[in-house]
Write a structure and sequence with these properties.
This protein is α/β, with parallel strands linked by helices and 409 residues long. It has two domains: 19-219 and 336-405, Rossmann fold (3-Layer(aba) Sandwich), CATH 3.40.50; 247-251 and 257-328, formyl-coa transferase, domain 3 (2-Layer Sandwich), CATH 3.30.1540.10. It has 18 helices and eleven strands. The chain has helices at residues 28-38, 66-71, 85-96, 109-112, 117-123, 148-154, 157-160, 179-202, 212-217, 223-230, 265-274, 289-294, 296-307, 312-321, 332-337, 339-343, 385-392, 397-405, and strands at residues 19-23, 42-47, 75-79, 100-103, 128-133, 206-211, 247-251, 257-261, 326-328, 347-352, 356-361. Strands 3-2-1-4-5-6 form a six-stranded parallel sheet, sandwiched between helices. Helix 1 crosses helix 8 (179-202) and helix 6 (148-154) packs across helix 8. The longest helix has 24 residues, at 179-202. InterPro entries: CoA-transferase_III_domain, CoA-Trfase_fam_III, CoA-Trfase_III_dom3_sf, CoA-Trfase_III_dom_1_sf. This is CoA transferase. GO terms for molecular function: CoA-transferase activity. Keywords: Transferase. It comes from Roseomonas acroporae.
Length: 409
């Protein structure tokens, strides 16, 4: 079991030496800083005295959410009531010692707290500032409220993750995780790295403006150019892929869903032979990818009937022997037990001081000389108040005690 140690001096990640201040809550900004922390940055997270709401999200264990162990890993957490003027002074003192700031308040909210761009740059002129919001920092919708699910809907993803038209009257299906927040967080982290790289060359700071809506919209492949040139609106396809066939999930005889991706001509030829129906490749309905895409309903029915005649183990073995891309549809239990994930450290047991043994995902992307294990797990509320204010800012014990007595910490 990995024993995280934030002070063991083993951090040689590519961002080691950079310090990032997080004024974030919920998912998007904290996910961005988690990625930066995974790659070696020192992250100081500011949260209200009651803690980030994500501490209470999802399943609970020993009074805390296990998600927090991962969500706030590699971070030093301090508590500040940003509504108090004294907290503003602490933030600006921290900014002087930080390379970047990541926040996801509504546009203009930090400025109303006295922490606008002018104040931040007065504290550190070359600061990199990453802002994550629902619609972006300008435009007619900048002040509208939004969460990740709103970004997913406006960005076009919720429409495409649904079942095919006419097959269900249920609401459009959600991906199942906060994908809008997470994608925005990835873009914010990328923007911070790019801006820091530019600062190394020019000495100039920068501002990154990430919108949840735009982050999801940027993933829609050819949907926009197809609409612009052909006037076609891409429709949801359920488990299939609109541009390549066959690719879908098929139920084995014992009820297990098996994803089969035989969407090139050589792969389809092998699948047809495996099913004992080699003549399918000569059938005009399935001769070439365009024809197969136009006739996916019929083709999926043929493959589904064949898959339904085999138990999952036998189906998996047959597809493996034929070298056809396939997999069972994994649950998180399958992921935790997967030999490949375990071998690469993508599933690892970590010792969390608050929870005991916790499973953590490894670091993505993997980079040489970068530890794949977290340096620390998500700490308690205000766990690093004294160390950050004392070591980083040089506040003495009396000043820290005064801030605590005044309800600032």
């Amino acid at each position: 079991m990995t024993e995280p140690n934030r002070d063991d001096g083993s951090n040689d990640g590519p961002l080691a030496g950079f310090r990032v201040l997080e004024l974030g809550h919920y998912v998007a900004a904290p996910f961005a800083t988690r990625l930066l922390g995974d790659l070696g940055a020192e992250v100081i997270k500011v949260e209200p005295p009651g803690g980030d709401p994500v501490r209470q999200w999802g399943a609970r264990y020993k009074g805390s959410a296990p998600w927090w162990s991962v969500h706030a890993r590699n971070k030093r957490c301090i508590s500040l009531d940003l509504k108090k003027p004294e907290a503003r002074a602490v933030v600006l003192d921290l900014v002087k010692h930080c390379d970047a700031l990541v926040e996801n308040f509504r546009p203009g909210q930090l400025a109303r707290m006295g922490l606008g761009e002018a104040e931040l740059r007065a504290a550190r002129p070359d600061l990199v500032i990453a802002r994550v919001s629902g619609y972006g920092q300008d435009g007619p919708d900048r002040d509208k409220a939004a969460f990740g699910v709103i970004g997913e809907a406006i960005g076009g993803l919720r429409h495409l993750t649904d079942h095919p038209p006419g097959t269900s009257d249920l609401p459009p299906v959600r991906v199942g995780v906060s994908i809008g927040d997470s994608v925005a967080g990835i873009y914010a982290a990328l923007g911070v790295v790019a801006a820091l790289l530019r600062r190394e060359r020019t000495g100039r700071g920068g501002e990154i403006d990430v919108a949840l809506t735009e982050s999801i919209f940027s993933l829609l492949e050819g949907a926009l150019p197809e609409y612009g040139t052909l006037g076609t609106v891409r429709q949801p396809t359920g488990g299939a892929i609109a541009t390549a066939a066959p690719t879908n999930a098929y139920r084995a005889r014992d009820g297990v869903w098996m994803l089969i991706a035989a969407n090139s001509d050589p792969l389809f030829r092998r699948l047809a032979a495996l099913m004992g129906q080699p003549g399918l490749v000569e059938d005009p309905r399935f001769a070439g990818n365009q024809a197969r895409c136009a006739n996916t309903k019929v083709l999926d029915a043929i493959i589904g009937e064949w898959a339904g005649g085999l138990d999952a183990d036998a189906l998996e073995a047959a597809l493996r022997d034929a070298n056809i891309p396939h997999t069972r549809v994994y649950t998180v239990a399958d992921i935790a037990a997967d030999a490949q994930f375990r071998a690469r450290g993508m599933v690892q047991e970590v010792a969390d001081p608050m929870l005991g043994a916790v499973l953590h995902p490894g670091v993505v992307p993997r980079m040489d000389h970068t530890p794949n294990a977290p340096r620390s797990t998500g700490p308690a509320v205000g766990a690093d108040n004294a160390s950050v204010l004392g070591e980083v800012l040089g506040y003495d014990a009396a000043r820290i005690a005064s801030l605590k007595e005044g309800g600032v910490l």
